[in-house]
Design goal:
The complex is a heterodimer of chains A (291) and B (698). With 291 residues, chain A is of the alpha+beta class. Chain A has four helices and 13 strands. Chain A is globular, with a radius of gyration of 24 Å. The termini of chain A are far apart. Helix content of chain B is 36%, strand content 18%. Chain B contains 23 helices and 20 strands. In chain B, the strands form six sheets. In chain B, strands 2, 3, 4, 5 and 11 form a five-stranded mixed sheet that branches. A five-stranded antiparallel sheet of chain B has the order 13-12-20-19-18, with helices on both faces. A four-stranded mixed sheet of chain B has the order 7-1-9-10. The longest helix of chain B has 31 residues. In chain B, 43% of the residues are buried. Classes of the chains: A alpha+beta (291), B alpha+beta (698).
């Protein structure tokens, strides 16, 4: 009995000493520990991602030839439709180039695009986050926007050597400005991720919607980036307004929810748009160049 | 054990029994008192106490509504509401940083001096240092120049948004905040889009600053972003005297008192500061623009924070108002007025009005100098107030300014003469270099005189002697009666036009001239104790001098009436497409066609070849009359330049009046000074002028 008590006491003491030691450790050492743990964990994350890729590969390889023929036929039809669309876009592109030449407008290459595979997804109620298989070694920096096609996926929050963590649009740590389709005055609204209810679909909040904003009839209103904040390029799709805007407690503004335009948890691959010039916000996050 | 055996129970004595009853009775009374009290509280006071309890744990939060918009007659927004984004510091969340900075400063102070340290001062300094650190970070993110200089920071580099001096935490503001609103967040930047008061940012610069903060500043932390609604005037000082401005108001809107919960005196009410009109249309139509307040009924925690919202009612935005102003004409009019400058290059005080002849709707109403209502939309600073006060911009010279009308009054003299039949349109009068009245020579402005002058020529060259003669023949009473018939001493804009019905009586523009308008006669001169009326007074009145005082809006209305051949025009600032053009109290002018044609012909000749040539526009016949009256400014003689009229002369659509207060010399003349303004106004109205942008000024 006494021996058991002594053993229990010793384990409590050891826990207390460990906790106290952790608290008293210099923050640099703690950060180093955390980084070391992440780097230790990184190969496992890579392995998970690659295993999934392999499983997908074998799943597709096991399809019957009839299924593949049918899929190929569907794909050919889609390709044909896209070809026609592309030809239409070509005219627009030429006109765009011509106008740029006339106005001598040089579009600076603001971003460097880095394509990355998704390793894991954290779809807990609080933090909607994915881990991608590219990191500091690939030139990724914190704060960089993450997109898939013309859709905003989220934003890089932490960068490690070979992996990076991305806060999705629906994460509470995500914030950006947007324009609403149908607002001819282009007034900016605020997009904030919100913690989802358990088992609920994650959404983001759209706030500071002007009181006189009216939803376009018929289709859900598209929400796009403004390009004003220096982080996200303009015109990217953030999602669509959910159901309609309703008045908030603030009274003078309306508020609504944003439904992401893609299923963010089924993405296999994303692009990280790394700004060529460091933004002030990025410098602020690093804290080393702040005057 | 032995002691226990020794203890005996004694029988009670009658005395002890009495004592027992007394104690029992006392307890019974106490019990009855408690039961009675409980019953009183539970049965009689129950409702009151429940209400009291509810009130103590509940709170009403009042939400001010957004004010209605103000449009011009073509639907352009003249006054709007915009989101104001402010950056605030959560002082409670910064306590740890305050403490750490305090200890650092305290150690440094103690190392520096052994004497007693003022800990209060050190704590204040610590707070300022911490807040300044966060403010620097905010500026670091919102200032676009940092993007270019981020790799090589240039200390003290100026930004397009604000000079470095504006980026300091104001210690006085912080002290006041800690004294009065310690529990609320401290405002670091009141308006991100316009971070420096009174210094508007460039196009899109303000929106970019807001977006940069939202997207680049850390979401977590003690710095918050808050948003509310603020009144905005997209065209700055344009039509400021018509539009007015708003001021803070904490009064309970009437609809809120109708809510049963709010009527309770004991319930705590938190009201957000709303806005109320302080001048112009914002004041006169405040009841239309302000809307209905919303309210929320909350339960609160023991710490005083809101807990659960029980009921609520959304605020209802105020109604929109369409003004009769035409943005293009208004803007051009103000630009034209701003081009008239004194020898120092400062624009001269001036006013201009353009009316729709048929309806009386005001198409342009400008007064110079003006002010920017955006600077007054928040809290008016003493510096702002003093600046507007010093420039004289509070006065709406078009509606409140009182001036002698000068030669523009000669039309009234001519009409009085013809109606009194002392002169006719084709009578020729001999007009020399002066006209003797009593023992004084009243001069002509042409040193050698004009010789033979008829009505047509008089209006073209603005002959004085013709008017002296006709004025004296008609007499002062006829002149005064005629001026009153045209409403030159009747307050305008004080009631709605007749098309709004007899019950719709309200002031369209506050403080329009109502007192001080003077149409002089014998009784007036006696009333002001200036002695008996002389012929000299009649001569002076006949050329619009002497005691005559009227406003530019009155003269524009007179021109509109003349254009229609009537006596009254009721001007209005509200646009109503259904307005029928009938004017309350208006009667036919009382002249025959030949007489009317002669007046119109003379006014056309005034622009074609007379004193109003500077307003001439090829292909647009204009009927106008110039005027140069004398007034005393700071004790010295100066000129007022007038021009009134209408266009097109053959089918009148618009009437106008321009007035310019000259500087302290006689270089200002009616046609020469006011004519170019009239020309630009009419060119814009006719669409022949320089194309005007309707983009808001930034």
């Amino acid at each position: 009995m006494d021996q058991n008590r002594q053993g229990a006491r010793a384990s409590y003491v050891a826990l207390a000493v460990f906790v106290a030691g952790w608290i008293l450790l210099p923050s640099a050492v703690r950060r180093l520990n955390r980084e070391a743990f992440v780097e230790f964990q990184a190969p496992a994350l890579h392995l998970v991602g690659k295993s999934r890729d392999l499983a997908t590969f074998w799943e597709k390889k096991s399809r019957s030839s009839e299924e593949l023929v049918a899929a190929g036929r569907d794909l050919a039809r889609i390709n044909a439709a896209l070809e026609i669309k592309l030809k239409g876009m070509e005219d627009v592109r030429r006109e765009n180039t011509r106008l740029r030449e006339v106005t001598r407008y040089n579009v600076p290459a603001d971003y460097l695009s880095v394509v990355a595979r998704v390793a894991t997804r954290d779809s807990s109620s609080w933090w909607q986050r994915i881990v991608i298989r590219k990191g500091r070694n690939d030139g990724i920096r914190p704060g960089a926007p993450v997109v898939f096609g013309d859709t905003v996926v989220g934003r890089v929050t932490a960068v490690h050597l070979t992996t990076s963590e991305v806060d999705l649009v629906t994460s509470p740590g995500f914030r950006c400005t947007a324009y609403l389709e149908g607002d001819d005055q282009n007034r900016i609204v605020l997009i904030n991720g919100v913690a989802a209810n358990s088992l609920g679909t994650a959404k983001a909040r759209v706030s500071v919607i002007p009181y006189d904003y009216l939803l376009p009839a018929g289709t859900p209103a598209r929400v796009t980036t403004t390009g004003m904040g220096g982080v996200f390029p303009s015109g990217l799709t953030l999602g669509y307004l959910d159901g309609g805007a309703y008045a908030t407690q603030v009274g003078n503004f309306k508020e609504s929810l944003l439904v992401p335009s893609r299923d963010l948890y089924n993405l296999q691959e994303v692009s990280v748009l790394v700004p060529i010039i460091q933004t002030p916000g990025e410098a602020l996050m690093q804290g080393d160049q702040f005057q | 054990m032995r002691e226990r055996a020794d203890t005996k129970v004694l029988p009670s004595t009658p005395v002890e029994k009495l004592r027992l009853y007394a104690v029992f009775g006392l307890f019974s009374l106490g019990f009855l008192y408690v039961v009675g009290g409980l019953a009183y509280r539970q049965l009689i006071q129950a409702n009151d106490l429940k209400e009291q309890s509810d009130n103590q744990s509940r709170r009403i939060v009042l939400r001010p509504p957004a004010r209605g918009r103000i449009y011009d007659r073509n639907g352009f927004v003249l006054v709007d509401n915009r989101a104001r984004w402010s950056v605030k510091a959560d002082l409670a969340a910064l306590q740890k940083e305050f403490r750490s900075e305090y200890l650092r400063l305290l150690a440094a102070e103690r190392a520096r001096q052994a004497v007693q340290v003022d800990t209060e001062r050190v704590m204040e300094l610590a707070r300022v240092n911490v807040l300044q650190g966060w403010l620097n970070k905010v500026w670091f993110v919102i200032d676009e120049n940092q993007r270019k200089t981020v790799r090589k920071p240039a200390p003290g580099k100026s930004s397009p948004l604000a000079p470095p001096g504006e980026r300091k935490v104001n210690i006085e503001d912080l002290r006041k905040h800690l004294r009065e609103r310690r529990a609320l967040p401290f405002t670091l930047v009141a308006d991100l889009a316009f971070p420096v008061a009174n210094m508007p940012a460039g196009p899109d610069e303000g929106v970019k600053a807001v977006a940069r903060f939202i997207e680049q500043f850390p979401v977590e932390g003690p710095i918050r972003l808050e948003s509310d609604i603020i009144r905005t005037y997209p065209y700055g000082g344009m039509a400021a005297h018509v539009l007015g401005y708003v001021k803070d108001s904490e009064e309970l809107p009437p609809n809120v008192e109708d809510i049963a919960e709010v009527r309770s005196e004991s319930m705590q009410k938190l009201r957000q500061t709303g806005k109320t009109g302080a001048a112009g249309v914002e004041l006169s139509f405040d009841h239309v623009l302000k809307g209905l307040s919303g309210w929320e009924l909350w339960t609160k925690t023991s710490s005083g924070y809101n807990q659960t919202r029980l009921k609520y009612s959304e605020p209802v935005q105020g109604s929109n108002i369409p003004l009769s102003l035409d943005l293009r004409i208004q803007r051009k009019t103000e630009q034209a007025l701003a081009e008239i400058k004194d020898s120092q290059g400062v624009p001269l005080p001036a006013a201009a009005v353009m009316l729709d002849v048929q309806t009386g709707e005001i198409l342009a109403l400008a007064s110079q100098p003006t002010f920017d209502p955006n600077r007054l939309a928040g809290r008016i600073t003493i510096a702002d107030y003093d600046e507007v006060e010093k420039s004289g911009a509070w006065l709406n010279r078009a509606t409140q300014g009182l001036y002698p009308p000068g030669s523009t009054f000669k039309i009234v003299t001519a009409i009085a003469g013809m109606r009194k039949k002392v002169v006719d349109w084709d009578d020729i009068l001999e007009c020399g270099a002066f006209y003797r009245v009593g023992d004084r020579d009243f001069p002509e402005h042409e040193p050698v005189g004009y010789g033979d002058v008829d009505l047509d020529k008089m209006l073209a060259i603005s002959c004085n002697v013709w008017n002296y003669q006709v004025g004296l023949r008609a007499g002062p009473d006829a002149l005064a009666a005629e001026a009153r018939r045209f409403g030159l001493d009747t307050p305008l804009l004080e009631t709605a036009s007749s098309s709004d019905g007899p019950d719709a009586a309200y002031t369209e523009l506050p403080y329009a001239a109502s007192r001080g308008l003077v149409v002089p006669d014998r009784e007036y001169k006696l009333r002001i104790k200036a002695g008996p009326w002389h012929d000299g007074d009649t001569a002076n009145t006949s050329i619009g001098q002497g005691y005559l005082l009227t406003s530019p809006l009155h003269m524009a209305s007179f021109a509109a009436s003349l254009a229609r051949g009537e006596t009254r025009t009721v001007p209005t600032i509200i646009h109503d497409p259904a307005r029928d053009g009938r004017h309350r109290g208006s009667t036919p002018i009382g002249l025959n066609k030949a007489q009317l044609d002669a007046i119109r012909g003379g006014m056309v000749r005034c622009v074609e070849e007379g004193t109003g040539r500077s307003a001439h526009i090829q292909g647009l016949p204009i009927a106008a009359k110039t005027g140069t009256s004398e007034y005393f400014k700071k004790g010295e003689k100066a000129h007022l330049a007038w021009m009134i009229g209408y266009a097109p002369a053959d089918r009148p659509v618009v009437a106008f009046c321009v007035l310019v207060e000259g500087q302290l010399d006689t270089s200002t003349w009616g046609g020469k000074t006011a004519g170019p303004v009239v020309k630009q106004m009419l060119e814009t109205w006719a669409g022949t002028g320089e194309k005007q942008s309707t983009e808001p000024a930034r």
